[in-house]
TrEMBL record:
Protein name: 1,3-beta-glucan synthase
Gene Ontology terms: cellular component: 1,3-beta-D-glucan synthase complex; plasma membrane
InterPro entries for this protein: CALS1_helical (IPR058851), FKS1-like_dom1 (IPR026899), Glyco_trans_48_dom (IPR003440), Vta1/CALS_N_sf (IPR023175)
Similarity annotation: Belongs to the glycosyltransferase 48 family.
Membrane topology: Multi-pass membrane protein
Species of the source: Nicotiana tabacum (Common tobacco)
Domain of life according to the entry: Eukaryota
Keyword Nucleotide-binding: no
GO biological process: (1->3)-beta-D-glucan biosynthetic process; cell wall organization; regulation of cell shape
Amino acid sequence: MSRVEDLWERLVRAALRGHRAAAGRPAGGISANVPSSLANNRDIDDILRAADEIQDEDPNVSRVLCEHAYSLAQSLDPNSEGRGVLQFKTGLMSVIKQKLAKREGGTIDRSQDITLLQEFYKRYRERHNVDKLREEELKLRESGVFSGNLGELERKTVKRKKVLATLKVLGNVLEQLTKEVSPEEADRLIPKELKRMMETDAAMTEDIAYNIIPLDTTSTTNAIVSFPEVRAAVSALKYFRSLPKLPGNFSLPPTRSVDLFDFLHYTFGFQQDNVSNQREHIVLLLANEQTRLSIPEEPEPILDEAAVQKVFLKSLDNYIKWCNYLDIPPVWSNLDVVSKEKKLLFISLYFLIWGEAANIRFVPECLCYIFHHMGRELEEILRQQVAQPAKSCMSDNGVSFLDQVICPVYDVIAAEAGNNGNGRAPHSAWRNYDDFNEYFWSRHCFKLGWPWRKNSSFFLHPTPSKNILKSGGGKRRGKTSFVEHRTFLHLYHSFHRLWMFLFMFFQGMTIFAFNNERFNFKTLREVLSLGPTYVMMKLIESVLDVIMMYGAYSTSRRVAVSRIFLRFIWFSIASVFICFLYVKALEDNSNQNSNSTVFRIYVVVLAIYAGVQFFVSFLLRFPACHRLTNRCDSWPVVRFIKWMHQEHYYVGRGMYEGTFDFIKYMVFWLVVLGGKFAFAYFLLIRPLVEPTRSIVDMDIQQYSWHDFVSKNNHNALTVASLWAPVFIVYLFDTHLFYTVLSAIWGFLLGARDRLGEIQSLDAMHKRFEEFPEAFMDSLHVPLRNRASLLSSGLVLERNKADAARFAPFWNEIIKNLREEDYITNLEMELFLMPKNSGSLPLVQWPLFLLASKIFLAKDIAVESKDSQDELWDRISRDDYMQYAVEECYYAIKFVLTSILDDEGNDEGKTWVERVYEDIRGSVAKRSINVDVELNKLPLVIQKVTALMGILKKEHTPELESGAVKAIQDLYDVLRLDVLRFNMREHIETWNILSKARNEGRLFSKLKWPRDPELKELIKRLHSLLTIKESAATVPKNLEARRRLEFFTNSLFMDMPVTKPVREMLSFSVFTPYYSETVLYSMSELLKKNEDGISILFYLQKIYPDEWKNFLARIGRDENASETELNDNPNDILELRFWASYRGQTLARTGRDDGVKIQILYIVLDIPDDRNKLLKRIN
């Protein structure tokens, strides 16, 4: 009978799946067959999915879930009127009956079902280890190391969501079933502990996003949460006594208590995600300032008042300046009496406004206006002690700051931007961000009211016409104080002070030169002609101001327009008056009346005018006088003079350099201009004085060409032709002197800061042995062991310790270059540096420094006829050749001793020690060239190379036999061909070794190298003995060279000691992103343009070596095409990354952000004083 029931259940399930598949929806058990009329109730679908999930684990619990789903379907559609509902109910009831028939006992006891669900809930939760599951996922997500295996993180996330979703369904069904029994019975069946467990599991079902600190969710792996400064900041944001109580129906996450952000969220209707982001943002700001105060840790950390004050002043600095500029009181009447909690409330309000302001962030003074009024609303709510939505954010659809406050301003800005004709409309016809922001630089902005008075001219949208924009009938608010016109007149108008300075100086030097370099009354009178030149050029500037403002007079501020015309009238009168006085003075002087009253008046007027101009410029430009002039802004006369001198803007008022910087800047330009004017006078102007006089004095009666200019006019055109090139060179040679002096000064600064010491690969090779020490000196981390080695004079030990600490950093850089496909596998092997943690008494350098050095040393030894000292001197001339010889010498001994250090190999180990002892004795006697046949060294190298080639492989009996044979061959070569020692002193030892060799016992057993460090040493020794090509040109990739040279240069720069990360100022990096492609898809990479060229093909041709390196990294042939990668999804993903990193800036930005975390991990691996280092980094 059971077989019939099983077949019937399978038939019903198959029918349901077939019905679902026919509708075009994926099959998925009972849960995949909920009719569309019932699909709005997600509970039925979730319950049946859970029933399918646990069917094999516990059919009884699955039956209970199916019964509950049937009850929900019956209550939603009792008469089965919906499409497919009757079939669904029939099939579901059949499944329930089959499950019920398998139960022992016929009746259904609901209390037993509740107990069954409760027990299964605990059992299911324990079996899947929910707490550990969540912890493992968080640990992997927060570690930042999952980028290499995204599938692992995804698998853990899917598993966690699946398990918690099932638990949530079980909990919901439990709650529904308990409603059918009495409350007392329900409390007995579901204890409080289980209820709390169910609530916690339900809260963990959905992912709660966070940036750095999980404030709305629990985390056992995030260490930042436990920092005392973070706990103090979180505690300070809690609900305080002065805040009115929130209504009872306000929802909160179960993992935290109510805080002041919840109050602002309820009052002003900010978006939930914005509230979460800014809560975390402010916690980080407060924690950072608390850390910088260096307050001792306490059991219950409390946020210091000074930290709050600093964040308050930094955050609201612009608002405070805005209030002072408009001469209005801020939201608070007296800052000294504002409590810490109230300051935190204002900070939170400002950041919430900023976080939801969208493009209004580009109108910062508008944000000040909004904060000013919302702060006053907040004060009124606090005064009434009633939690209620703010009137400015209320609408018929609820409370929304975004809809009621931001959208009206955003809409008018978007309308202006959308109607600028894609940049073709005149600048005077539409408003940009500057115009909107500048509107809030005067008290007229308060006409907008609060809430917004939306019928104001500020909110009127522009009226588009066919080509350009209309002004909106004069009612719409237009430009403020600046209008841009596209014209070549900007060449003079934008740099008028420079042109005036150059023209006047040229005029003065020319006058001085034509007066034979004598300064007398005549020269003074002519030099005073600079007065009319100055006022006339200022008049030209004011005329251009009037012209540049054309087209915006009707929409611009009256103050801006009146200033332009006042300046025009002033310089018109000044130019007429000064020119008239100067002409009259010249006429009087021509009448031999040198003591003319008019000339005296002219000099006095000119002196007064120049003195006033100099005094005003001195006050407004010299840094030491800025504070004085700012204090006098309340005086109408001072404000008028400053306004006439320059338009009074809100921005830029405090952007002044320091006095010392200003003096350095002034001295620099005095030197530049001094060189320029000296060159101009002595090489351009003075040589032309005599030729000009000669030309002027020429009396040419007849011209080959008819000339209306020069005829009877002292050959004016000829003189102009002579001076025109000189004048043009004079105008434009300033850049030449600036470039030369900047290059000289930059060279001196670079030499002082030691920039560019490593300029080539050759320099990097030569100075590589200095890098470890320079790196440790630059790290600024005090290490106790290093200091003791330095003080005791153990240079080798200290160098080896420095190399051991430098190696991980260097190797990480090399591995990163390989991961980014800038170098090949061979180049990576050459550049990797050993750990230097072994017992060899020397520093092991990367192979690219030692490559081919052994063969060069061998050739020198074979061809040498010199003594031992002379031979060693020739080898030691190349430091790295010496290091290679020494490393081979010690490494061979270490390897042979290690593999012969086994039972039954005492003779082999004795042989190694005997040979090395005899070599040391020969070196001490200076007779190595006599005791050793140096011309046989190639044969020794050949035998050692063969042995290392065998030992670097995995162990097999055949390889072990080959290794024994190789050692025996090495013994024979050394014994019979190479060594010429006097063996009589140790005749017994050599007799024992000879007997063991003849009997076959010598080297019969080997201890195969299995230690990772020993195997690496064997591979390195084999490479040293086999690489014959020089590595002077590696890496070949230019980007790899640039990065290595940049890093090695930074080791020698004089840089200030950086503060620990926890004491650094808080900073954020914004990466502009709209709709760019971050990661190319394969279709985008393979899509061809009109020339038949795809992005991938283009990148392959630009980076051919990197493409080959990429194929080698993923294990493909270097000639493989991209189509061959389709069989492996991982290779396709790697290909997309490879192309995106070279074609998309945002992809590179995202990749490089993770490098900083890797560097911190490497720093933490430094063995000595780890706790000190960790504390310093934190």
